[in-house]
Structure formats: C-alpha cells, structure tokens
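Budget justification, computational time. The allocation requested in the original proposal was used primarily to generate structure tokens for proteins on the priority list. As evidence of use, we reproduce two of the resulting records. The first is shown immediately below.
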Amino acid sequence: MIGDSIILATAGYDHTIKFWQPHTGICTKTVPHADSQVNDLAITPDKQNIAAAGYQHIRIYDINSNNPNAITKYEDISKNVTAIGFNEEGTWMYSSGEDHNARIWDRRTRSNNCQRTFQAKAPINCACLHPNQAELFVGDQSGAIHIWDLKTDQTEQYLPDAASGIQSISVDAEGTHMAAVTDKVS
C-alpha cells in the first residue's frame, strides 16, 4: 500500500478485508477477518490503520504492513458493532452497536477498554461524528436520533418518524445540515 495515494478498502460477509487500486481494479492485498463478518470500516485520519467492526468486537489493522493480524483488539461488546469512526486527530474512536450502546474508545491507552458509553433504548444502527468533534449523532431501530454531547455527557433526542428505524445519518462539513435514512417502506 505504500506509495498508493488512494486507498480503497472493501469488506463484508466473506470474512476478509480487501485493498484495491481503484484506477486498475486490481486487489493488492487481502486480510483475513476470521472472527466474523465486517459490518463497517473506518480508516484513521493518518491513513496508517483501518478499523473493522464485526460481531462482538472491533479489530484494527496496519494498512501498510504485510502482517495479516490485528494490531489492536477491542472486545467486551455483546452484539454486532454497526458503526465506527475516528475523531480528526485519530486519538479516539467511536462505535455503535446492536447492544443499544454507543461507545468512546481512547486509543492512547493500552487498556483497550471503553472510556464512555451512551445507552439508547433500542439497538443502534448508525453513528456519525459532528464536524465540531464534540457531538455524536446516533440513530436507533426505534426511529430516534440521539445527539450525544461529548463535553457535557447530555443527550437530545429527535423522533422524526417513530414508525421506522434510522439506518444512516450524515452531517455536512459545516455542521449545519443532517440527513437520515430510515427503513420505512411506503
């Protein structure tokens, strides 16, 4: 991967993470993720590591290494991890999951333990960090969007459509607009 300016990584239910040269369509590396399917991927801001969310765990791999083993493992999660991401410095990571929890993981500690948790009343499908780096938007299966203020540990809840679960949330770069996708069928 060293020398490639563009990183394209894919993963899924085949228990692998694949790295591609997007301009040629050639797979340059395959990393086994034998523990489970991969539900989400996130690349660290420095582009050195990739995090893979799976069933009951998160694994971090070195993008530039030929070592197929995870360099860091986050566990003690009871169900599927549905979303992961990093703050802009890459010093901490967030995750959400079907166990109703959104978590903050401090990557600077050696313990690999969750430092903070927000618990929703339903399984969480998605999470998105606001550009201000201080709010985590969380969407759950009950149709609620929670805004977790990471500075005050307070939350606000919006219920745009209680009849449908929130599948995806996105916040624009200026932090002024949010988009959400539901599972509602017309």
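The second record produced under the same allocation is shown here.
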Amino acid sequence: SSGINAEWPLRPGDGVVFGADSRTSTGTYVANRVTDKLTQVADKIYCCRSGSAADTQAIADYVKFYLDLQENETNEEPTVEVASRIFQMLCYNNRDQLSASIICAGWDKTNGGQVYCLPLGGMCVRMPFAIGGSGSTYIYGHCDNTYKVGMTEEQCLKFVADAVALAMHRDGSSGGMIRLAVLTKDGCKRLNIPGNQLPTFWSK
C-alpha cells in the first residue's frame, strides 16, 4: 500500500488532496489490482487505509456508523477531528488485535482542510501532510524535500501523484493505478491516473 494526504493551504484550510495506489496483495499474490483505498466516512471526510484490508474496512464502517449517528442527533456535519478521534479510539483500544494504519482527512467549517495521521498503535497527530503504507518508507525524503506550504491545488495534486508513483515504483506491495481526491467546502472531486499514464522519472 501507498497512501498520501496533503493540505493545500493557499489560504490556510482551503482543502486537502489525497491519493493512494490500488493494489491489495496476499503475500506475493495480487488479490485485487483496482482496490479503492480512499474510503468515505462522512460527506466531506475520507480516509486512506493500509495494513490488513479486513481490519481497516471494519474500522471505517464503525467510524461511518458513529459519524452518521452524530450527524442525525446534532443536525450538523461532523468535524475531521471528531472522525480522527473515533479512529484513534478504535485503533488504540484494539491495538493488539489490529493491523491498521489510517490517514484521516477532510474539510469542515470549523478548521477547514485537515490531515490526521494514525500509524500502527493508535497515535493521532495532525500534520500538514501524511504518508502511510509499505511504500511510504521509500519516499519520506522526497516528501520532506518537495512539500511546500502555500501550494496551489494543481501543485498539490502533482506532489501527491508523484509521491505515490515513486512509492509504487519501489515497493512490490504497491501498484496498479493512482486514485486521487480533492476535498474542499464544495465536496469531493475524484480523479484517476491509469497504470499506463503514471508519472515517470529517470527510469522511464
């Protein structure tokens, strides 16, 4: 897996861009080459999942249930922080039974665009950008060097697509296509980059 989320605070909190590969593997066998790892848990809140597919799907279903419940009771859209804290509660309380790493991102009227990183074990930290999954270990240096505060939406889309493509190139457990999404106050815009149109670098 390879997933990355990034805020693009041209005006702080404008929105977030996030992306992931589409490969689900079982050991050396590719079980699904077109998985959608960008999972919606509320109208303007999504998560990137890595680790055990079964574990992360179950956790995302629980979070979606609790957020729907809250929205029905309060008649207000849930915040990204609340969604992230529910993820944290589930991941931390069941940390010995789960293999789940989550990046929760979205937009709300309180704090705008936000990215929260939840690595294995259930820690929850807000970050300007976050990366996760087995492919992420190859691109920390690239992301640290390339990310800039104040990028436009287009620059942030390129940053995310390039990072996922680099991770996919090096990591055998990542591959397929790149799925991208842009979350703003207007909702979610989805984009796909097919496997034969991925960004290329020196190895092309």
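A brief technical remark on that second record: The longest strand covers residues 100-108.
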